[in-house]
Design goal:
Bound molecules: 1-deoxymannojirimycin
Radius of gyration: 24 Å
Number of helices: 21
Helix content: 40-55%
Structural class: alpha+beta
Largest sheet: 3 strands, antiparallel
Strand order of the largest sheet: 5-6-7
């Protein structure tokens, strides 16, 4: 019976996936309309409760749910991780009752004086972030979710937890150890190697805690960690993936925007926006410019050696998919749109994004077949819809829902997919499914319905932490009120002109759209631009705007290749690809062949990387990409 149901579900899923290709092709079905958006929003709400109730009934107070067998497991510190990670989603959905009872339970029962060794990064983004965002909601009338009996219990817990992590920062570089024991500090056998994301993704949570407790130590150690990483950047302004926190030597020199590095970039920009600390902005500007120069192979991103910029890893990894969302926040919407289209084409091919998709073979990367319910592509979809209101992003949202409902839904929650080609389910549900994946999906459809939620129509502007937690720009936390503070829109490059001049130009019907996106212009202004952004799509808003420093000659040479409008530029793995030993075996084992042959045409493009090696660029379109974009 159960297996019949599974087969039926699978058949429906396949047919849905197929029909959604057609949907997006505009042949048979229509784009998502307001009524359907409302239905989808409600369906996503149902998804949240299927998983949340499944967790509460079967796993709580253990950390995470095993949704196939309907059991629980401790995966981080053994402190009701999924409940903490879900708190602000409950608030966002307006569920005062469950939000209140959950906050009260945590306030009464949680403690961190436990003999557990935990990841500094995961504990910060999931637990500390969850506690802080819930505290800021529960303690504030303006959110509409204030809990009358609440007496800062979560803030007290957050401070206690973070003090227990401070010993990890006692290193010569300021970059923290990857793990710390909450009772005894850092074990003498603890590994000295940590990831860039691990050391560089603490500034939001630690900074908020400092501003709420008036103790600067948290903000300082997190900033020192970022400085410690950035001081060791290469001459190309790239950072590697892993570093020794004692010697400061990079032990893994692959630079990229995905695995092991991703949220380092994210927190540079977001820390600036939330705290108004311009040091973060300057670092972000340099880091971003370099990423776009060396890692961006429009519309994809690759991993390169941080010193030479030689390509080492021509793979789309699913963690990269947050990048278009970050670009929206930075005001660089045009490349974000192209990259999202490319990444989404991978989702459409498999119904999920695999952890790795090889851009040379156009097939799932060996050993990286799973989809562990990650949010990144959905997060970027939300940001792009917010910025552009293009209905194609709602259509993408409908596809995400269909995939999750027919491929990942299991008896007590949502299951990881172990193999995106076979759609095999695994008995695990990461807490970020409720903190992020469902949250961004719900927000996407709510934007299309009435935007009447805390984030889009609340008392403050909010920054999302990398775990999707809501951090408000309140006066206590943020100095950014002095700046433009619109997130999710973009200014025209002429917004630097005096307002009067802009208005005059507009009244002369000068609506040249080539000026909207700043990145591709040679733009002579560095740093933050204060003032009005008259070109904003969404009226009455003031805009945060990010502009790059003037291009250097070196950049001009490298960027001289013609603007591409193709769906994908794929780097073919020839002599320029330096493979890791295990990768060589595995890829040769696979014959380096594509399972679904792409249609390829040689565009004749070639460009030089920093080592002077020739990179062969082939313009290609997979069938799916053509279906999606035509
Ligand atoms: C989450 O914990 C966070 O989004 C983190 O930045 C990356 N990994 C997961 C989601 O994929």
């Amino acid at each position: 019976m159960e297996s019949n149901f599974r087969w039926l579900s699978y058949a429906i899923f396949i047919s849905l996936t197929f029909s959604s290709f057609v949907l997006n092709n505009g042949v048979l079905a229509e784009s998502v309309k307001p009524d359907e958006a409302k239905q989808l929003r409600d369906e996503v709400r149902g998804m949240f409760y299927h998983a949340f109730d499944g967790y509460m009934n079967n796993a709580f107070p253990l950390d995470e749910l095993k949704p196939l067998s309907c059991q629980g497991e401790d995966t981080l510190g053994g402190y009701a991780l999924t409940l903490i990670d879900s708190l602000d989603t409950l608030a966002l959905l307006g569920d005062k009752e469950r939000f209140t009872s959950s906050v009260e339970w945590i306030g009464k029962n949680l403690q961190f004086n436990i003999n557990k060794t935990v990841s500094v990064f995961e504990t910060t983004i999931r637990v500390l972030g969850g506690l802080l965002s819930a505290h800021l909601i529960a303690s504030d009338y303006a959110t509409g979710m204030r809990i009358p009996s609440y007496e800062n219990e979560l803030l007290v817990l957050a401070e206690d937890l973070t003090r227990r992590m401070l010993p990890a920062f006692d290193t010569p570089t300021g970059i923290p150890f990857g793990s710390v024991n909450l009772m005894y500090g850092v074990d003498k056998h603890e590994s000295k190697i940590t990831s860039t994301a691990g050391g560089g993704t603490l500034s939001l949570e630690f900074g908020v805690l400092s501003r709420l407790t008036n103790d600067p130590v948290f903000e300082q150690v997190a900033k020192n960690a970022v400085r410690g990483l950035w001081a060791r950047r290469s001459n190309l302004d790239l950072v590697g993936a892993h570093i020794n926190v004692f010697t400061g030597e990079w032990t893994q020199k692959d630079a990229g925007i995905g695995t092991s590095i991703d949220s380092f970039y994210e927190y540079l920009l977001k820390a600036y926006i939330l705290f108004g600390d311009e040091e973060y902005l300057y670092i972000f500007q340099e880091a971003y410019r370099s990423a776009m120069q060396y890692l961006h192979k429009d519309p994809w991103y690759v991993e390169v050696n941080m010193d030479s910029a030689a390509i080492v890893w021509p793979v789309f990894n699913s963690l990269q998919a947050f990048w278009p969302g970050l670009q929206v926040l930075a005001g660089d919407v045009d490349p974000a749109i192209r990259t999202h289209t490319a990444f989404f084409s991978v989702w459409k091919r498999y119904g999920f994004t695999p952890e790795g998709f090889n851009l040379a073979t156009l097939s799932v990367q060996y050993g990286q077949k799973s989809y562990p319910l990650r949010p990144e592509l959905i997060e970027s979809t939300y940001w792009l819809y917010k910025a552009t209101r293009d209905p194609r992003y709602l259509d993408a949202g409908r596809d995400f829902v269909a995939s999750l409902q027919y491929g990942a839904k299991c008896p007590c929650g949502y299951c990881h997919i172990t193999d995106v080609e076979l759609h095999k389910q695994e008995d695990h549900m990461e807490s970020f499914f409720l903190a992020e994946t469902v949250k961004y999906l719900w927000l996407l459809f709510d934007l299309a319905v009435d935007s009447d939620n805390l984030v889009d129509n609340g008392p403050y502007k909010y920054i999302f932490s990398t775990e999707g937690h809501l951090l408000p720009l309140t006066p206590q936390i943020s100095l950014a009120r002095e700046h433009c503070s619109y997130f999710g829109g973009y200014c025209r490059s002429n917004s630097t002109k005096p307002e009067q001049e802009v208005l005059e130009e507009e009244s002369n019907n000068n609506h040249d759209r080539s000026n909207i996106y700043p990145y591709h212009e040679s733009f002579p202004v560095t740093g933050l631009i204060k003032g009005l952004c008259p070109g904003l799509t969404h009226a009455q808003k003031y805009g945060f705007f990010y502009a790059l420093p003037e291009k250097t000659e070196r950049e001009d040479v490298n960027q001289a290749k013609p603007e591409t409008t193709s769906n994908s530029i794929v780097l073919i793995s020839d002599q320029t690809v330096v493979k890791r030993p295990q990768q060589v075996d595995k890829e040769e084992e696979k014959g380096f062949t594509s399972q679904s042959e792409p249609i390829m045409t040689i565009s004749g493009g070639s460009s030089n990387d920093q080592t002077g090696q020739e990179l062969t660029l082939l313009e290609s379109e997979t069938d799916d990409q053509r279906l999606y974009s035509s």
